[in-house]
Amino acid sequence: MKQIYLLIKTILSNRRLVMNLAKNDFRARYSASFLGAVWAFVQPLITILVFWFVFQMGFKSAPVDNIPYILWFIPAYVPWIYFSDILTSCAGCMQEYGYLVKKVRFHIEILPAVKILSAGFVHIFFVMFIFVMYAVYRIPFSVFYLQAVYYTFALTVFGFSLGMLVSAIAVLFKDFVPLVGVVLQIGFWAIPIFWNPETMEPWVLSVLKLNPTYYIVSGYRDCFIAHVPFWERPMLSLYFWVFTLVLFLVGCIVFSRLRPHFADEL
């Protein structure tokens, strides 16, 4: 528990530095391209357009939960964009900021937080994009939409917990970063982003619910489609937060144990 306290204290005491580094990280990520940071928004938008054209315009997919397929798809895909961005960027953050890692007095614990905040800029845009899409389709506004703040917070905490773990492991195991990409490809099909969980066998669905991202994806749909408050899913919520807090503790311990070896490996 001491590691968690020190980590939170370090991030809060350096919050201005975290914000400045996150802004620089966001700008620098696409600085070599002509459109710059615009690519952070264009790539996911193209994916959304492809799914809209293929499934709604091409295959004429029937409405799901009484709404057009694209409006059913987007609330699940938006948190996945955020999560995959967190995982891939955190996995390589120590190597990317190797010159800071080798500085004796720099708090490298803040680097995963920097990457998450940088990814959060894009996520905020796409949450607003959901609002716009629902307005375009003339779906009435619901107070349940505001529940997305809770699920964004939950995903951020989970992403940070996992980010601490993968950022430390990736320094010692050089093949870990591409492995993360493979896991994300599999994970995209293992959670209900483009398929309806109600069509699955009950035992299969029970296994899939063990994945914490299932809770997040389903939660976003609860906000925008089902209008179900998170406290009406007590067992899923309890499982998610227990899993996340355990992962947070494990991530902090592994990070602190491996930290002395970072400078040598980089």
Written description of the protein model:
This protein has 266 residues and is mainly α. It has one domain (2-265). 74% of the residues lie in helices and 0% in strands. The protein contains 13 helices and no strands. It has helices at 2-13, 15-29, 39-58, 69-91, 93-96, 98-101, 110-136, 148-172, 176-190, 202-208, 212-226, 234-258, 262-265. Helix 4 runs antiparallel to helix 7 and helix 8 (148-172) packs antiparallel against helix 11. The protein is globular and about 55 Å long. The model has no long low-confidence stretch (mean pLDDT 83).
Task: Please specify the SSE layout and strand pairing.
Blueprint: H1 2-13, H2 15-29, H3 39-58, H4 69-91, H5 93-96, H6 98-101, H7 110-136, H8 148-172, H9 176-190, H10 202-208, H11 212-226, H12 234-258, H13 262-265
Helix pairs in contact: 2-7, 3-4, 4-7, 4-8, 4-9, 4-11, 7-8, 8-11, 8-12
Name the features:
mainly alpha; 13 helices
* Rg calculated over all Cα atoms: 19 Å
How many H/I helices? Answer: 13
Molecular shape: globular
Overall average pLDDT? 83
Number of E-state strands: 0
Task: Give the topology string: H per helix, E per strand.
Answer: HHHHHHHHHHHHH
Class from helix and strand fractions:
mainly alpha
Count of the domains:
1
Q: What fraction strand? A: under 5%
- Distance, first to last CA: 28 Å
- Major sheet description: none
Helix content: over 70%
Q: In a nutshell, what does this entry contain?
A:
It contains 13 helices and no strands. With 266 residues, the protein is mostly helical. α2 packs across α7, α4 runs parallel beside α8 and α8 packs antiparallel against α11.
